Amino acid sequence: MKVVILGGGESGVGAALLAKHKGMEVFLSDKGSLSDKYKQILVENAIPYEEGQHTESLVLEADEVIKSPGIPDKAPLIQALVQKGITIISEIEFASRYTKAKLIAITGSNGKTTTTLLTYHLLKSAGLKVGLAGNIGESFAKQVIADTFDYYVLEISSFQLDNSYEFHPHIAILLNITPDHLDRYEYTFQKYIDSKFRIARKLAKEDYFIYYKENPPIEKELAVRNIPAMLLPVSLESEVQTGAYLSNDTLVIRTGSPIRIALDELPVQGKHNAINSMAAILTCRILDIEEVAIKAGLKTFQNAPHRLEKAGEINGVTFINDSKATNVDSVFYALESMKQPVVLIAGGIDKGNDYTQIEELVNQKVKALVCLGKDNSKLLAFFRGKVPIIQETAYIREAVQMGLQLAKPGEVVLLSPACASFDLFKNYEDRGTQFKQAVSDLKNLKLQD
User: What is the Cα–Cα distance from 85 to 93, expressed in whole angstroms?
Assistant: First the structure.
């Protein structure tokens, strides 16, 4: 069996290691540059590789190709593989063939990371042998080599699902579907919806499907799809007999013995995080974790960096890093969770954003807008006349200084960009890290004054 890995990042190198462990002939090809760390791993394990190019003649010799999620299907090399009839799969699909563990898979346009981390934390703190993988942490394939866990909690993107066929979670969670990444789906929302629903394609009657009840695309699809698993809706608006719902600022979890958890007991705030928390807690109840263990786990959870992360306080003004908010829907959730007046820092590379989604919330909560980007024309055109104060900059430090000048004690400066970061930063992590550093530096400067 000859396997070619396309892409030499965490998932690709992990897949190469698993394939080698299973006795396959392996070749890894990356069109970009491999990091020294991954090159060393490949050399130490005698796995041949190339970087800076894809040698088509070598790639087309494969019996099967494991493709990085970042490579689009329309790429000429992928089209050549399809024409030759060579199977193309994701690392998630490949790794799932070789594990005895039960899989908990989480997808959605927003909230995946928070829900995945919270679910993992609750299960681990309750004493289960559980791994964390997918679109987060260490490669799933690499972990499957030893396969020491009883469960894996997997954050799954639509790109990973696109090349998954037999992938079979025991618990599948679909948080929401809103327009995103449409450039990869021929700007057809239904194709993106279909991609997300691939998480449920192999569910059987002994499995579970947790979903957000009030998301229109999910509601519409469930009306025409036959999913044999037990359906467990999560609702913010209505009582459900089996599943979870919000009632008078209390989460009610109904599977097994009902439990109730007050919103203020949750480690993450905002209605969107009530959805995420209900999905995670439902998962715990399916796996027979007791209420006392769940509540103990909630008290010790810390969310991922760059997602509504407190970055510091200066002169009574709170700075919040939400750099991971790279689409308008994420900014909606961030603003919805704010209780104080907000100075919003937004901007970057626009992905076809529709700012009408947040217009009402901006009107209610945003006192000033700082546009951070090389080209702020779309933000300016939409919000001019709708936000009392609008300023522009291409420098993160200046954006932080503007935020402090515009905010009063007790108010919030929120970095929630709604855009990709590549005009000024390496990625959203770099943007968030630079924001936190700028806040820290400005705080130290004020202390010296």
Answer: 18
In this structure, the dihedral spanned by the alpha carbons of residues 195, 197, 201 and 206, taken in order and rounded to 10 degrees, is 150
Q: Looking at residue 35, what DSSP letter applies? A: P
pLDDT digits (tens, 9 = 90+) for 117-141: 999 999 999 999 999 999 998 999 9
Give CA angle at 23 (57, 159), nearest 5°.
60
Tell me the CB-side half-sphere exposure of residue 330, using CA atoms within 13 A. 27
Annotated binding-site positions for ATP: 108-114
Distance of CA 292 to the CA centre of its chain: 28
Give the pLDDT confidence of 265-310 residue by residue, as tens digits.
999 888 889 999 999 999 999 999 999 999 999 999 988 889 889 9
pTM, two decimal places: 0.84
Give the span between the Cα atoms of 31 and 34, in whole angstroms: 9
- Distance CA(333)–CA(350), nearest Å, equals 18
The class that CATH gives domain 309-448 is: alpha beta
Q: What is the CATH number of domain 93-299?
A: 3.40.1190.10
Instruction: Write the DSSP symbol of residue 250.
Output: E
Could you name the CATH architecture of 2-89? 3-Layer(aba) Sandwich (3.40)
Q: What residue numbers does the annotated binding site cover?
A: 108-114
Which of 154, 177, 39, 32 lies closest to 91, judged by CA?
154
